[in-house]
């Protein structure tokens, strides 16, 4: 090797503290043999060795993690997943990893032969947001070192369980303990991997809020109205809305009802849209605003009989030519002056709000021979009007959407609001006078 | 992630006084085209999209005068404080068709983006380019006035706070109370005070004009409540007279009410409110019975 590069190699070794000069020389040599320009060769070699370094971070600091980092921890759960991304098949391995500071989901894009309980050190890991949650990713450039057992890293994630009020539970929680009253509950039969399983689903509420729950364990003795306290429930996110999952490592017990039942009534209270759009997702929210736009795709539509996707000209994206099932819906934008959300109303609610049944809508269409006539008619009758919508809010890349569970035209309270506004004026008038 | 921009509620008076425009991104920034041009109103409201209601009082077709655009409609929409000017051209085809066919006067709601035309510095003409425009009833108009009054009063109260703190000689930005307010709101309010010289007089004048607007609505909504309760009484009377155990047909009821001087629309609202209150019920569609 020519010694013209010696000074450069020495310099690089200095910046890349801890890398052997011979390694650098070898790499550079390889590239120069292929007549790679020196400037480019330098860059490549530098990047290669530089990326091997990297800061080691702890899970609690994951939100401020650099682009590329080292992480040491224990794999506490792992499962294989098959996904198709842009037509390509990927074998993913997802699970949870913990260190002495916290828990985090991870996704490995290659098979690193990870097993539950393994202590590993991952180099060149990176983070991604998935379902509004930060996840650690092991990708193409990552490599995994298996380490001997380290007792300073906890064996399971339970140690990181926090006790929280229902409203405080959010996407950053993995495991949580809380207490509340069951306000809704039903059983469901599921077939999981060929085994019939009964799960319990419902809603649990305390005086601060409510959340849906799913229990994979027996909930004997619990019914609607029962107060329970639970430890180490898993927090899952469904379209940005946290939900509680009781699994085999969750414990629960019936407790005395200490809740103020007045606060847990089912009566919805209307909240401003500004506080809805701030959150990633809210379970069971009620909002009022003006319909300021009715979006295309409202009116009479056809759905695929297999997957319920909306289809055009009897062709489904997934199932080819099918004979569609007729349906009606309203997609609109609701705005209350503090925020704006998309709302979606199903056929039943659309019929009520639009004031015409689907059969009547079809008649209108037949008479006018135009497909858009129902959409146009919806626009004419809805734009500008007030509407109250109750349902789950979730955020995606297009903004916040509320899928309506119920919708109604709000009671006209203008008289009382007017009175209270005017009384303020009289008060001020008196004060000034 | 693109969050949809809120449609602001504000009165015509405030909108037409707004001439402070600024771009959210610098002009030479290429990506700046995605950022809206905003106006800041004298009360410190950031405006781009608005939702307004009012009475459409005049529609003009400006084809011959402008000539450049193939079609240009100008409409005047009055709220209790002033007039919104709405222009719809070839890029607002739906609104143009709507304006070409509308009967004047009638109540309308408009969602649109605000445009400013500045022939010279310090004077501007504000207009709205409609995204949506629709006929509404007077109830929605009244509610809008109340909503807008609430929003506007809140902004005026905030401004008032700023001004009174300023008077006490404290540094505006350092003051603790002001710090607790959202930084964007604070920034815009300060800009408005600086640019427009918004002062106590402006605030009290504006409040007076809102007060008057509300009073004009009050008469309206009071009359409506009175009319509906009149209608309710008449309907109850008819039901009592004609219900011989089998109930009364809806069509008959409405006809009978008409004879007694209650228009169809009002007796229908009255009937619905009676049904809601549980004073009568509908055992079969179109058949009404009293609950005794």
Write the layout of secondary structure elements.
The complex is a heterodimer of chains A (433) and B (292).
Chain A: H1 6-15, H2 21-33, H3 38-52, E1 55-57, E2 69-85, E3 88-99, E4 102-108, E5 119-130, E6 133-138, E7 143-147, E8 162-163, E9 175-192, E10 195-206, E11 209-215, E12 227-238, E13 241-246, E14 251-254, H4 273-278, E15 281-294, E16 299-303, E17 310-311, E18 315-316, E19 320-321, E20 325-335, E21 340-345, H5 347-354, H6 358-368, H7 373-382, E22 386-396, E23 399-408, H8 414-432
Parallel strand pairs in A: 1-2, 4-6, 8-9, 11-13, 21-23
Antiparallel strand pairs in A: 2-3, 2-5, 3-4, 5-6, 5-7, 9-10, 9-12, 10-11, 12-13, 12-14, 15-20, 15-22, 16-17, 16-20, 18-19, 20-21, 22-23
Chain B: H1 12-17, E1 20-23, E2 37-40, E3 46-47, E4 49-61, H2 63-66, E5 73-79, E6 82-88, H3 93-101, E7 106-120, E8 123-135, H4 138-167, H5 176-179, H6 183-196, H7 200-242, E9 248-249, H8 250-259, H9 264-277, E10 280-284, E11 287-290
Antiparallel strand pairs in B: 1-2, 2-3, 4-5, 4-7, 5-6, 7-8, 9-11, 10-11
Helix pairs in contact in B: 4-7, 7-9
Written account of the structure:
The complex is a heterodimer of chains A (433) and B (292). Chain A has a 5-stranded mixed beta barrel. In chain A, 21% of the residues lie in helices and 43% in strands. Chain A is α+β, with helices and mostly antiparallel strands. Chain B is α+β, with helices and mostly antiparallel strands and 292 residues long. Among the domains of chain B are: 144-218, no CATH class; 225-290, Arc Repressor Mutant, subunit A (Orthogonal Bundle). Chain B contains 9 helices and 11 strands. In chain B, strands 6-5-4-7-8 form a 5-stranded antiparallel β-sheet. A 3-stranded antiparallel β-sheet of chain B has the order 1-2-3. Chain A binds chain B through residues 274, 277, 290, 292-293, 333, 335, 337-342, 379-380, 383-386, 395-400, 412, 414-415, 417-418, 421-422, 424-425, 428, and chain B through 1-9, 51, 53, 108-109, 111, 131-136, 139-140, 142-144, 146-147, 149-151, 153, 207, 211, 214-215, 217-218, 221-222, 225.
């Amino acid at each position: 090797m020519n010694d013209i590069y010696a000074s450069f190699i020495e310099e690089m070794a200095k910046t890349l503290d801890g890398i052997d000069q011979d390694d650098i020389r070898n790499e550079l040599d390889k590239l120069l043999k292929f007549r790679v320009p020196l400037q480019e060769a330098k860059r490549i070699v530098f990047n290669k060795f530089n990326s091997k370094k990297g800061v080691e971070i702890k899970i609690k600091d994951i939100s401020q993690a650099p682009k590329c980092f080292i992480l040491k921890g224990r794999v506490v759960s792992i499962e294989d997943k098959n996904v198709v991304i842009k037509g390509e098949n990927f074998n993913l391995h997802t699970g949870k990893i913990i260190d002495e500071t916290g828990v985090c989901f991870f996704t490995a894009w290659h098979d690193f032969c990870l097993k539950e309980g393994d202590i590993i050190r991952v180099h060149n890991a990176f983070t991604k947001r998935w379902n509004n949650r930060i996840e650690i990713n092991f990708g193409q450039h990552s490599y995994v070192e298996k380490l001997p057992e380290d007792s300073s890293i906890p064996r399971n994630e339970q140690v990181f369980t926090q006790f929280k009020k229902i409203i405080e539970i959010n996407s950053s929680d993995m495991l949580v303990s809380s207490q509340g009253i069951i306000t809704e509950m039903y059983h469901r039969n599921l077939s999981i991997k060929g085994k019939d399983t009964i799960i319990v689903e419902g809603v649990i509420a305390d005086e601060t809020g409510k959340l849906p729950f799913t229990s994979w364990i027996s909930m004997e003795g619990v019914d609607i109205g029962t107060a329970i306290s639970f430890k180490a429930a898993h927090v899952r996110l469904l379209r940005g809305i946290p939900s509680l999952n009781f699994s085999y490592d969750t414990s629960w017990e019936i407790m005395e009802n200490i809740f103020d039942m007045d606060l847990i009534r089912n009566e919805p209270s209307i909240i401003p849209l500004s506080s809805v759009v701030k959150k990633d997702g809210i379970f069971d929210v009620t909002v009022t605003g003006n319909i300021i736009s009715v979006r295309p795709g409202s009116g009479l539509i056809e759905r695929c009989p297999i997957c319920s996707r909306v289809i055009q000209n009897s062709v489904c994206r997934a199932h080819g030519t099918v004979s569609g099932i007729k349906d009606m819906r309203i997609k609109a934008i609701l705005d209350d002056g503090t925020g704006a959300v998309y709302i979606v109303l199903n056929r039943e609610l659309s019929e009520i709000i639009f004031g015409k049944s689907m059969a009547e809508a079809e008649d209108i269409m037949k008479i006018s021979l135009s497909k858009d006539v129902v959409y146009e008619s919806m626009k004419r009758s809805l734009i500008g009007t007030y509407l109250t919508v109750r349902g789950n809010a979730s955020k995606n890349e297009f903004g916040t959407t509320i899928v309506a569970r119920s919708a109604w035209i709000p009671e006209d309270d203008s008289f009382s609001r007017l009175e209270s506004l005017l009384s303020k004026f009289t008060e001020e008038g008196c004060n000034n006078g | 992630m693109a969050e949809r921009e809120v449609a602001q509620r504000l009165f015509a008076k405030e909108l037409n006084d707004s001439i402070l425009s600024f771009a959210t991104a610098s002009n030479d920034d290429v990506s700046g085209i995605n950022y809206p041009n905003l106006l800041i109103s004298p009360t410190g409201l950031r405006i781009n999209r608005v939702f307004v209601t009012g009475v459409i009082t005049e529609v003009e077709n400006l084809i011959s005068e402008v000539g450049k655009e193939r079609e240009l409609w100008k409409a005047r929409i009055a709220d209790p404080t002033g007039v919104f000017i709405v222009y719809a051209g070839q890029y607002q085809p739906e609104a143009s068709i709507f304006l070409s066919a509308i009967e004047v006067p009638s109540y309308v709601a408009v969602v649109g983006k605000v445009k400013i035309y500045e022939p010279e510095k310090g004077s501007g003409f504000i207009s709205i380019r409609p995204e949506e425009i629709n006929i509404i009833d007077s109830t929605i108009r009244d509610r809008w006035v109340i909503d807008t009054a609430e929003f506007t009063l809140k902004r005026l109260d905030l401004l008032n706070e700023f001004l009174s703190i300023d008077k006490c000689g404290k540094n505006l930005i350092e003051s603790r109370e002001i710090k607790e307010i959202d930084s964007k709101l604070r920034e815009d309010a300060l800009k408005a005070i600086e640019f427009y010289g918004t002062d106590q007089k402006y605030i009290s004048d504006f409040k007076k004009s809102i007060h008057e607007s509300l009073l004009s609505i009050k008469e309206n909504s009071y009359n409506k409540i009175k009319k509906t309760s009149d209608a309710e009484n008449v309907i109850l009377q008819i039901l009592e007279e004609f219900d011989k155990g089998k109930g009364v047909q809806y069509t008959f009821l409405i006809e009978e009410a008409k004879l007694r001087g209650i228009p169809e629309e009002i007796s229908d609202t009255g009937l619905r409110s009676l049904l809601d209150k549980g004073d009568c019920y509908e055992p079969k569609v179109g058949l009404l019975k009293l609950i005794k």
